[in-house]
Amino acid sequence: MGIIIAIDGPAGSGKSTTARMVAEQLGYIYIDTGAMYRAITLAAIRANIPIDEENLSTLVTQNTVTLEQSSRGQRTLLNSQDVSSEIRMPEVTNTVSRVSASASVRKAMVSTQRKIGEKGGVVMDGRDIGTVVFPQADLKVFMTASIDERAKRRASELQRKGIDTSPEIIAVEIEERDRYDSNREISPLRQATDARLLDTSSLLPEEQAEIITRWAKEIFPKN
Ligand code: DC
User: Fold this and answer.
1) CATH number for the domain that contains residue 134
2) How many CB atoms lie within 10 A of CB 166?
3) The domain containing residue 89 runs over which residues?
4) Which residues of the chain have pLDDT under 50?
């Protein structure tokens, strides 16, 4: 079937591109858990509710977030509607850290993530996969990169999508989000003690994927 590969790290460290490539090379499913937190954030924005624990605990019971695998990658569905593009909008990005700090939101998302990944053959990326979702994951990777490099990558990714921004603006936003994600009470962004550190500052996505695929093959030669 395959192993569980957990990839965690701060925003813009290259997790999703790399995780997608590793999954493709191994014939595994790729799960972008950030997309799930973004989808529930979109639901909160649409409902126009104040972001607090009481409102969010109700919101998670009224909305369903699902991930669908298609030939063109992962699609994120909110109540069966495809929101894959909408969840990348700046308004969602700027609100998602506050929503993902909620205990009710995390409980619901982690439970779904465990159901999807428990059988193995999965590459899951996020902030708490190796520490909370799958502490028993066979391979844990903590990806990081310099703030300048991360901001440059995120800015060009957004520019490609037609969103006007600059690395300087993105650097401020990323640092703020990392601070929030790392200092929240529940499941903060942390490197698991048994995670392998991968600094991607001077690596290409192909090189990053190759390193992780090699580690996976060393652990599970049947890959
Ligand atoms: O990976 P991303 O930038 O799309 O994630 C969006 C936000 O979701 C991120 O700022 C923190 C949150 N998140 C989380 O708390 N836990 C995860 N496993 C994944 C993402």
Assistant:
1) 3.40.50.300
2) 12
3) 4-216
4) none
The torsion angles phi and psi of 192, rounded to 5 degrees, stand at: -65, 145
Best residue for ligand 1 mutational test, from 181, 182, 186, 187 (most atoms within 8 Å of Cβ) = 181
pLDDT in tens, 172-215: 999 999 999 999 999 999 999 999 999 999 999 999 999 999 99
Residue 222: inside a domain:
no
Q: How far away, in angstroms, is 221 Cα from ligand 1 center? A: 31
For tokens 């700027």, name the residue: 94
Number of domains in the chain: 1
DSSP state of 52: S
74 belongs to a structural domain: yes
Between the CA of 223 and the centroid of ligand 1 the distance, in Å, is 28
Distance CA 39, CA 16 (A): 16
